[in-house]
Each structure stands twice: as structure tokens, then as C-alpha cells.
Design a protein that fits this description.
heterodimer, A: alpha/beta, eight-stranded mixed β-sheet, 20% strand, globular, B: alpha/beta, Rossmann fold, 4 domains, five-stranded mixed β-sheet, 15% strand
């Protein structure tokens, strides 16, 4: 019988010729089923599909389960696992030093909403170009399951302890303070998170994504409001999120009555098919009002709450030169002798 | 009643004198002090031409204001000429000792030094007495570090607190920038955790500590050398840092460059221990010398290096000096990335809890610190080779020592040798100096003899008893008299 020689097909590559393997990292040490692992996967997919060069990405994190995760994706990117709650300042320094880096910050609810609150709010104010992801499970996993500041009122720990303080809504805060791309998703909603991450990559300014990411070990039981089951029952998507990257020349008709299209900084298009009649993701005030309503109603609202692709970023405000500051040559960063002589003369 | 025997009083009717030269009543209060200037000019025989020059310079284009002030000066001068016979022995003689000198405060000198050292990222949080350093940097950099395209070759950020200020320095240092912040004691305390991160992940950065009186808020507008011990070992675990200690505006300028060179050479934080007296007060100085050495960026591997080497291990001691090689984020090579982490790591920067990995890494960092001894600024030594009494001082205490050594010689015939420390860790010369003297007085501005404590940790055990402390904590710049008196007593004179 004649046999046809078989050959393994070349690995699929993206538009810059890299395979998805080139976006992978070390093997995860997080618990099996942890929402954070799913988020790492979505990051890998989004970066791969958007054709982002891994060497251009700087991963930054604080301390906690979430902050360990940058070791588990994009091993070809530099990474800085900093101190608890203080990743925003490290990220700010890195971006100012080299504005060509794409900063990806991974934090948790404890790392952001408690110890890191001070730096979080100032990061949002500055609209630094960064994708800031909160992997939000409502508990401190590494220290065995204490409540965090995003735990909902009345949520119950495994030990039976009830949370009697109101949660911090990081999305409402981010919008109030000046972040220019703010949304919430769920680690179990592959499609929505994937589209939001791709749009995040196309944005220039602070992207703040709060991703509910259940902790299977300490917060996935009956009575928890951050469990897989609770999210499946209470997830209220505002829109169907889809994203058309600038390099994909697709023209699909859409009905402006039912869909909002936002052109991103790089020309990509973020399409939000409205599931709520009059929600406008470019209206900050309404976004905040809607988030507050959701708390009253007990909904977990997801989707893109607010987007403004036109606001100047912190790098624009500082009017920094195009070349990375870090590697400017001596001839540029050390003024000449005549400058020193001039200053000395003024001081005589 | 006599307050002091050497005081001579002249009475001057200021209000009466100012009225005729300043018709506008509400300005009289502002101009009245210039009557005094005129009186003093007459009594001390200051050339009125020089007075006028100074006033015209002060008011530059405001001719009307200058004229008004000059009229007041003249009124005072005329009054003194007519009615005040000279009763004191003092007068001013024209000299050329200030020829070519400049006047500048240490913080501005530091800012200038940083600009010429090629600083690109500055983050800071306002705190007395350091704020004028970054503020001077903003002024200078806006003038001299904006390209022809109008774009800045620097970023200066007022941070939300000192934690963020040092966080930004570390992020920028990791990404390859020459980055710095300036603060004072309370800020140093807040930077403790991050300092350990920089020490252990081996990220360069420069931190100016313009010391003020502590503990806590202390005397925020008074000077001190009270942060030496806490800064040398800032952070938890086994941590130690390079300290540079300027005593003058010239050294604020030159040590800014040393600080960045050392920070990048050793991939670590360098603290420059200035103080309020040096930082905020005006000092006469020699014009600063243009840096002659080219900027060196330390052991940084680029794309071509990685192509040649095939790869690298971030924390490996390749050269035996304890200093590893690093790459910068954004380096266009698939093998460039490494993972900076404050948790235990092996030579490749991978997470590790293995005892041997931990120990080897910590020993290497220590080796790196030891290497730095040969590269930090050497002490300045004045010795005649015969004296048995040595003085060790540092920073602004220097100026009291210069005068005190003269007093000691004249008043009680004590010849002293003098070593001015300029850095920690201590260089070989410091050990030798202690060895060569029977008694070594360590003069400093804190209560607990902090530098002496550091010396005790470093010198041979048999030499420790030679060290004696002269410590001042009143918050005022150190004066020669109190050093002289205390040293004389301790010498049994």
C-alpha cells in the first residue's frame, strides 16, 4: 500500500512570526483551578494574537498569589516582582525610564485595595500607560484565607466568619480618579476577558481591569460572593465585547443603535454591543452611577465601564523625548562645558 | 546694664530718618532696614560704590525700587557721618579672597551635579530640608536638558510619598535609567523596605539624605548627622549600603557623579549623606570642575553581547568581584529577560528556597560590598606623622575641625592629625589611621556616636579602645570651641 509521507505542519505563528509557545512562562505553582491561571492563559492568547513582541513587555507585580503569576507567562519578558502594594511606583519608574516598554501590572485585591491603596489611586490619577490587572478573589490566599477589602458585605469565610465591612469598588475608584480604560471581567468568561485584554493592549493610558478570579482553596464555597457558582449566577455583562485590531482589515456592518464602537489609540476598534439600552461607556459620571446601582441591586456588573482613548497619558504630560531616557547617550544627558561655565558665572 | 563686655551700642532714630527719603508711608517699613545698611557702611568703612552695586544687582530692572533703597542707605550713611563717632575697633578691608568664588547652597550644587551626571529620572516627596534639591533640579533641567525639539531628556515626578519616590527610583533603575530621589530622616525610614528590595534584586539608584534632627519629626529645621547608622543598614535582614558624605558644595557636585557611577557599577543603592547646614545654607565655593571622566553604565549586556555569549545568568559572579551582569527590559533578544524578585533566588534569578542558593547569593552580595571599598571616595588626611592624637570627622563637622585644630595647637600645644571620612564602607586608610594614633577622637553631630559605632564594627578589635567620641546634638552647626574644649578636657589639659 502506498503511503503518503506525512509531515508535521509548521507551528502556527502570529503576525511577527512567533508561536504561542514564545509567550509561555514557567509552570504554575498556583492551585489547580485557580482563576489566576486562566487569566495568565488569556494574557498569553491576547499578546500572541496582537503580535506584541515579548521583549517589549515589562511585567510588574506586588506580593500575593496574583503577583506570583507573572512567572507563569511570557518568559521572554523582563519582570519585577516588587514589594507588597507598591508595584505602581516601580511600574511608573520603569515606564518613565523607557517609554517604549509595554507595562503589564498584575496585582491582587489585597495588594491593591488594602496595603497598595495609596499607590493605586495615584497611578490611576496619572493615567500612566500601563495595563493594570487586579486578580480579585476577595481573600488573602498566601496567608490562608483572610478577607480582603474587596470582599462583599455579608460574604462568608470557610470558617464561618461573615464580612461586615463594605467592599472597595476598584473600578468606580479608577474611573473617578482618571484611569482611561476601566472594566471588570471574570476569569471564567474566556470570550469577554480575551476581547478586553486585546483592547487593553491597543490602549494608551491606564487600563484598569478588575478580574474576578475565584480562589478554589479559600473562597469558592457556598456563602462566598467570589465563587465560580456565585459569579455564574450573578454576572451581569453590560455589553458583548468584541475587538477588531488595526491590522485586521475587517469591515463588518454594525447597528449604531445597538452597538457602540470606540476607535482606540492605535486605530483598532472596540465594539460593545449594548445589552443595556442607554449605557454609554464614554460617560464617566454615568459609569460611576451605574456601578453604584449595581451594588444596590447585588449584581456583579462586567464589561467595559469607561473608555477614553484621547486623554493625554502621563508620558505625554511630562513631554519626554521619544528615545528611552534609560539609554540616552552621554552627549544628550551631560550638558557641555559652556553650560557649567554659564551657571558658575551666574553664581559669582 | 552690660550684656557683653565687647558690645558697643550706637543709637539710630530709624523712623525719623526713613520718613524724608520715603514719602510713601506704607513702604517705610520695607525700606527702614536700609538705613541700617548705610550706618554700617559708614562705621565699617564699606565702599558705597560696592553697596550700590549690590543693591542694583538685587533689584535688577526695578530702577525705582533700587533708587528708593539707595536713598535710604545714603540717609543712614549721612546720619552716621554727622552724629556717630566711631567707638568700635572694627572695619572692613577690601581683599581678593573671594575672587572667582561662587556662592551656592549644597542642594543646588547637588542638583547641578546630578544633571551633569546624566540623571534622567527624579522622583521626590516634599520634606525639609531636601525639597530644594529636586526643585533646583527642575529649574536647571528645564533650562539645560530640553532638546532642540522641545522635548525633555528627563522625567521629574512629585510622588505621593517617600515609598513611591523610592519605588519609582527602583523601577527606573531596573529599566536602566540614572534615577534618584532626595529626602530627610523620616523619608529614609519610609524607604526602608524598598531599600532592601533594591539591595537584594541589585538595582542601582541614588538617594540624597539631607539630614535633620530626629528621632521622629525632631527638629525639622535644624541640622544633624543622625541617620548614619540607620541608613548604613537600612531595611530588614542582612542589608548594608554605600554612603557618600560630602562636606562642601564642591563635594555635593562631585559626589553626585560618584554616586551614580558607584550605583551602576555595583548595582545597588548609594546614599549621599548631606545635612541641613550644607544643603540649605549658602556656601562660598570654588567654581565646580567639569566632569572629565566619561559616564560608565556598569555591567550591562546588550543584544550583541547576548548573541556572542548565548545567554547569561543574572546573579552569577563571572569576574570574581561579586558584581553580576544585568540586562535592561526592552533588550531585543529572546535570552535577555530575567526575573527581579525580592524572594530567594538562584544565580539565574529563579525562585529558590534552597539553603545553598540563598547562602551563595548573600555571600556574593557581600563580596560585592567588599569590592566597593576600593572604589568609594578615599578619606582626606592631614597628618604630620608624629602626632599621637587623631581626629576623625565627616560632613559639615569638618569646618569646626579645621578651626579647632588651630585652637588646640595654639592654646595647649596639642598637635593633631586629621582624617575626614568621605564614604562608607571604610577604605584601608581609615584602619591605618586608627592604628597610627594612640587616641582617635571621632567627632560627629548625633547622640549615640553613630560613626564611631560603625568604625568599631570595622577596625581590629585591639584598636577599638583607641576610639573616643565627641558628639553634639543641639541641632546647630558644630562650632570649633566646643570641640576644642571637650578634646582638651579628654586629653587632661
Amino acid at each position: 500500500m502506498a503511503t503518503t509521507p506525512t509531515s508535521t505542519p509548521p507551528p502556527k505563528t502570529n503576525r511577527i512570526g512567533l508561536a504561542v509557545m514564545d509567550y509561555r512562562g514557567g509552570k504554575t505553582t498556583l492551585c489547580a483551578g485557580c482563576g489566576h491561571n486562566a487569566i495568565s492563559e488569556r494574557i498569553i492568547d491576547a499578546m500572541y494574537e496582537m503580535g506584541v513582541k515579548p521583549e517589549r513587555v515589562a511585567k510588574l507585580s506586588g506580593i500575593g498569589c496574583s503577583s506570583k503569576s507573572p512567572a507563569y507567562f511570557m518568559g521572554r519578558s523582563h519582570s519585577f516582582n516588587a514589594v507588597h502594594g507598591r508595584m505602581p511606583s516601580v511600574a511608573t519608574g520603569a515606564v518613565l525610564a523607557n517609554r517604549s516598554l509595554m507595562a503589564l501590572g498584575v496585582s491582587g485585591d489585597g495588594d491593591t485595595a488594602s496595603i497598595g491603596m495609596g499607590q493605586f489611586v495615584h497611578l490611576m490619577r496619572r493615567n500612566l500607560p500601563i495595563i493594570y490587572i487586579i486578580e480579585d478573589n476577595g481573600v488573602y490566599g498566601l496567608t490562608k484565607g483572610q478577607f480582603s477589602a474587596t470582599a462583599d458585605l455579608g460574604s462568608k469565610l470557610k470558617t464561618g466568619v461573615i464580612n461586615d465591612l463594605p467592599p472597595v469598588d476598584t473600578c468606580a475608584m479608577a474611573i473617578t480618579l482618571g484611569a482611561t480604560f476601566v472594566g471588570r471581567s471574570f476569569s471564567g468568561d474566556k470570550r469577554q476577558l480575551h476581547a478586553m485584554l486585546k483592547a487593553a493592549i491597543a490602549h494608551r493610558g491606564t487600563v484598569m481591569l478588575d478580574v474576578v478570579s475565584p480562589c478554589v482553596t479559600f473562597n469558592d464555597h457556598e456563602g462566598s460572593t467570589k465563587s465560580y457558582k456565585y459569579m455564574k449566577d450573578h454576572d451581569e455583562p453590560l455589553q458583548e465585547v468584541s475587538f477588531v485590531p488595526v491590522f485586521e482589515d475587517i469591515t463588518v456592518e454594525y447597528d449604531p443603535g445597538s452597538t457602540v464602537e470606540v476607535t482606540m489609540h492605535d486605530g483598532s476598534r472596540l465594539r460593545l454591543r449594548k445589552l443595556e439600552e442607554d449605557y454609554d461607556p464614554t460617560d464617566r459620571i454615568k459609569a460611576i452611577t451605574r456601578l453604584n446601582e449595581a451594588h444596590e441591586k447585588g449584581e456583579v456588573l462586567t464589561g467595559v465601564f469607561y473608555v477614553n482613548p484621547k486623554a493625554p497619558s502621563f508620558v505625554d504630560l511630562l513631554n519626554i523625548t521619544e528615545q528611552p531616557l534609560a539609554t540616552l547617550p552621554e552627549s544628550v544627558v551631560r550638558p557641555g562645558r559652556e553650560v557649567l561655565e554659564q551657571v558658575m558665572e551666574e553664581l559669582r | 546694664m552690660r550684656l557683653f563686655s565687647d558690645l558697643i551700642f550706637y543709637s539710630v532714630p530709624y523712623d525719623k530718618l526713613v520718613a524724608p527719603v520715603c514719602p510713601e508711608a506704607k513702604l517705610r517699613k520695607l525700606v527702614r532696614n536700609m538705613i541700617y545698611v548705610g550706618v554700617v557702611a559708614k562705621l565699617l568703612e564699606i565702599d558705597m560704590g560696592e553697596v550700590e552695586k549690590a543693591i542694583r544687582k538685587q533689584f535688577s530692572k526695578k530702577v525705582k525700587a533700587a533708587n528708593l533703597n539707595l536713598a535710604a542707605v545714603q540717609a543712614g550713611y549721612d546720619y552716621a557721618t554727622a552724629t556717630l563717632p566711631k567707638r568700635d575697633p572694627y572695619f572692613i578691608q577690601r581683599m581678593d579672597k573671594t575672587k572667582d568664588k561662587i556662592i551656592i547652597d549644597g542642594n543646588s550644587a547637588a542638583a547641578l551635579g546630578c544633571m551633569f551626571a546624566g540623571v534622567t529620572v527624579v522622583s521626590w516627596y516634599p520634606i525639609t530640608p531636601s525639597s530644594s534639591l529636586p526643585e533646583a533640579a527642575i529649574e536647571y533641567m528645564k533650562r539645560f536638558r530640553v532638546g532642540p525639539d522641545g522635548k525633555a531628556t528627563f522625567a521629574i515626578v512629585q510622588a505621593e510619598d517617600e515609598l513611591a519616590a523610592i519605588g519609582m527610583v527602583i523601577g527606573a533603575g531596573w529599566a536602566g535609567a540614572r534615577a534618584m530621589t532626595a529626602t530627610a530622616g523620616p523619608g529614609i525610614s519610609l524607604m526602608a523596605e524598598f531599600s532592601g528590595l533594591a539591595y537584594y534584586t541589585e538595582v542601582p539608584g541614588v538617594i540624597w539624605d539631607i539630614q535633620r534632627v530626629g528621632p521622629s519629626t525632631g527638629l525639622p529645621t535644624r541640622t544633624s548627622q543622625g541617620d548614619i547608622l540607620s541608613t548604613a543598614f537600612l531595611s530588614h535582614g542582612d542589608t548594608k549600603h554605600i554612603l557618600l558624605i560630602p562636606c562642601s558644595a564642591e563635594e555635593c557636585f562631585s559626589m553626585a557623579q560618584d554616586a551614580f557611577e558607584l550605583a551602576e557599577q555595583f548595582q545597588t543603592l548609594v546614599f549621599v549623606m548631606s545635612d541641613l547646614d550644607l544643603g540649605m545654607n549658602n556656601w562660598m565655593a570654588d567654581p565646580f570642575k567639569y566632569p572629565e571622566k566619561p559616564i560608565k553604565r556598569g555591567k550591562v549586556l546588550g543584544k550583541e553581547d547576548l548573541d556572542r555569549l548565548g545567554g547569561f545568568a543574572r546573579y552569577k559572579d563571572v569576574d570574581g568581584d561579586g558584581i553580576p551582569y544585568r540586562t535592561l527590559p526592552g533588550t531585543d533578544h529572546p535570552g535577555a529577560a530575567w526575573f527581579a524578585r525580592g524572594s530567594g533566588h538562584n544565580e539565574k534569578g529563579q525562585y529558590s528556597e534552597r539553603p545553598d542558593d540563598y547562602e551563595r547569593n548573600m555571600e556574593r552580595i557581600n563580596r560585592k560590598f567588599e569590592t566597593s571599598r576600593s572604589f568609594v571616595p578615599r578619606p582626606e588626611i592631614v597628618a604630620n606623622g608624629k602626632s599621637k592624637v587623631g581626629i576623625i570627622a565627616y560632613g559639615t563637622s569638618h569646618w569646626a575641625i579645621v578651626e579647632s585644630r588651630d585652637q588646640l595647637r595654639k592654646e595647649c600645644n596639642i598637635e593633631t592629625d586629621y582624617l575626614r571620612l568621605r564614604a562608607y564602607p571604610f577604605t584601608r586608610e581609615v584602619h591605618d589611621f586608627v592604628k597610627q594614633h594612640d587616641r582617635v577622637y571621632v567627632v560627629e553631630q548625633n547622640r549615640d556616636a553613630q560613626m564611631l559605632s560603625l568604625l568599631k564594627l570595622d577596625v581590629e578589635a585591639s584598636l577599638i579602645t583607641r576610639l573616643r567620641s565627641i558628639a553634639h546634638i543641639h541641632g546647630l552647626p558644630m562650632d570649633a570651641r566646643s570641640v576644642t574644649d571637650e578634646l582638651m578636657t579628654m586629653e587632661g589639659k
